[in-house]
């Protein structure tokens, strides 16, 4: 799709065009079971990472997507980008990833050119996030938040336990956090670039998301509403759900 497809008033302003997205896609997908690296597996016949790229590029505020590929899959990811239709207004870079999600994100950040002041980090494993969520995250960063996470209330009650050494062994419950204060967070997570860069330079130790690195710096993180369809494809049943959501969208779109 070219810019000519957009009426002049809908084209991004120069400042809005500076949102860049890092997509860590270098994981193996161990919890999904044997097969190709997770981001290369297909949903509705299309690789998961192409769905994730399209979900980001659907936002007219996104001008650049940096895909962090499995280290042995850079050429394959480049050729997938070349062989699928993607909006022309978005640029793409592919870089090799690292041993952990955190390292892959850092490598993606290092590849960003000057001028990308709003940076989103989005899991390739969340292929179906709607554009409304992407735009809400970008808007909150533009409004001045240093770090933004899409979040949903929990349906289950959560227990904190003393983890057992052996899988499946009973685990003593030590606390029940008040559910009304808990949120399940998703991606894309959005950041002021300087904040995220500092977090990746200074925070040590393992984390499970980028926003928690910002929290460790003592800086603020805020939520915006997440979306049920932004769930992460982690285990085999998630693939079944993702195929069903995609089939419903295609029916609704009249495909
Ligand atoms: N070394 C890694 C590990 C993960 N990721 C990416 O981080 C996102 C979220 O990670 P997760 O869902 O845990 O993916 P995997 O690490 O592939 O899954 P698993 O833990 O089951 O192996 C995914 O898009 C994954 O490709 C990455 O870029 N580099
Ligand atoms: C970043 C994340 O998707 C937020 O929910 C999540 O923490 C990633 O966890 P994973 O174990 O790497 O899938």
Automatic annotation (TrEMBL):
The record places the site described as Positions MEP for the nucleophilic attack at 179, 232
Q: Which UniProt keywords apply?
A: Isoprene biosynthesis, Nucleotidyltransferase, Transferase
Pathway the protein takes part in: Isoprenoid biosynthesis; isopentenyl diphosphate biosynthesis via DXP pathway; isopentenyl diphosphate from 1-deoxy-D-xylulose 5-phosphate: step 2/6
Entry GO MF terms: 2-C-methyl-D-erythritol 4-phosphate cytidylyltransferase activity
List the protein's name: 2-C-methyl-D-erythritol 4-phosphate cytidylyltransferase
> NCBIfam families, alphabetically?
ispD
What are the site positions for Transition state stabilizer? Answer: 31, 38
What's this protein's family per the entry?
Belongs to the IspD/TarI cytidylyltransferase family. IspD subfamily.
* Catalysed reactions, semicolon-separated: 2-C-methyl-D-erythritol 4-phosphate + CTP + H(+) = 4-CDP-2-C-methyl-D-erythritol + diphosphate
Asked if Glycoprotein is a keyword of the record, the answer is: no
Transferase as a keyword of this entry, yes or no, is yes
* Stated role: Catalyzes the formation of 4-diphosphocytidyl-2-C-methyl-D-erythritol from CTP and 2-C-methyl-D-erythritol 4-phosphate (MEP).
Alphabetical list of HAMAP family matching this protein? IspD
């Amino acid at each position: 799709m070219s810019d000519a497809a957009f009426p002049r008033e809908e084209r991004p302003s120069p400042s809005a065009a500076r949102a860049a997205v890092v997509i860590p896609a270098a994981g193996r997908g161990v919890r999904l079971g044997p097969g190709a690296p997770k981001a290369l597996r297909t949903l509705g016949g299309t690789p998961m990472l192409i769905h994730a790229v399209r979900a980001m590029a659907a936002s007219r505020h996104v001008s650049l997507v940096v895909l962090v590929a499995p280290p042995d899959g850079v050429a394959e990811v480049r050729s997938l980008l070349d062989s699928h239709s993607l909006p022309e207004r978005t640029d793409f870079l592919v870089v090799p990833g690292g041993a952990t999600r955190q390292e892959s994100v850092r490598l993606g950040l290092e590849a960003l050119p000057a001028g990308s002041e709003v940076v989103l980090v989005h899991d390739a494993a969340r292929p179906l996030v709607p554009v409304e969520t992407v735009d809400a995250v970008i808007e909150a960063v533009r409004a001045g938040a240093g770090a933004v996470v899409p979040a949903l209330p929990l349906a289950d009650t959560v227990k904190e336990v003393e983890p057992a050494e052996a899988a499946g062994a009973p685990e003593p419950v030590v606390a029940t956090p008040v559910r009304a204060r808990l949120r399940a967070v998703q991606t894309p997570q959005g950041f002021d670039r300087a904040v995220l860069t500092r977090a990746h330079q200074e925070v040590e130790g393992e984390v499970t998301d980028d926003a928690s690195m910002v929290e460790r710096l003592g800086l603020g993180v805020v939520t915006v509403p997440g979306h049920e369809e932004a769930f992460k494809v982690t285990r085999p049943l998630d693939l079944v759900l993702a195929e069903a959501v995609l089939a419903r969208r295609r029916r609704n779109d009249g495909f």
